[in-house]
Amino acid sequence: MDFTFVSGNLGLDLAGTVGRRRGEHIDLLGSPEDLARWAVSAGLLDEPPAADDDDLALAARLREAIYRLATSARTGSAYEEADRLVLNEVAGRPPAGVLLGAGGLERRGDLRSALSSTARAAAELLGGPHAALIRECEAAPCTRLYIDTSHRRTRRWCDMRGCGNRAKAAAFRARGHRQG
């Protein structure tokens, strides 16, 4: 299973590992191994780290806290203290290391450091001016959150190649049925 990184922020991408939040949830992090693969796919680490059920539970707590915080930012609601505490607890740990090695860039650390880097990215988003640009994909049943950095702030879908393309194709088919 491949992971998607279209949200514009690692924290939102972690939150996006649960799909269809208002329907039959799809959890892309079903095992510690999935979480380790996500950390590599996200570009946080070069090699899959050791991961266990405690790491997976922490990632799930962080993911849901980020989702709720981002939803609050999107709707203009106050952040819940419990969610801020989870985010800050994880962000306060040492992040993954980024080094210049003989062969180029090296990303090292364990799973907790990768989660710290993710939480730090989310904290920077949620505490900065781009928090006001968080949107939710309009394509049903997608519930992915993303940062709308389009020129006019009118982006409607998390990803044009996926959700946007499907929505436009469905609208085209619907117009064709009315004309025929």
TrEMBL record:
Superkingdom of source: Bacteria
Gene3D superfamilies in UniProt: Jann2411-like domain
Family annotation (InterPro entries): ABATE, ABATE_dom_sf, Znf_CGNR
Domain Zinc finger CGNR residue range list: 134-175
PANTHER family attached to this UniProt entry: BLL6575 PROTEIN
Name the record gives this protein: Zinc finger CGNR domain-containing protein
Organism: Nonomuraea zeae
